[in-house]
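Board notes (copied after class):
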Amino acid sequence: MIELNGIYKLKKIKGIKNNDNEYKVIKMDEKIVVCMQLNGAEKGEQFFFLKEFLIDPAKPDDIYSNIIELN
């Protein structure tokens, strides 16, 4: 379950290399979270994500999103 003030990484998209940045949830509603980036070049910048794109610690093996790479 995604929680306020929790620290999460983004799920991976098969075929696309993504970073391992961590994000802290600072606001949330039923579907959307506002996160602050904790590391990387944009440290402190805020991002909006759908909850389904954050890795849920209760489901650690669920690391891939349901989005596929478009060619």
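Comment from the instructor: The chain is about 0% helix and 30% strand. The first strand starts at residue 7 and ends at 9.
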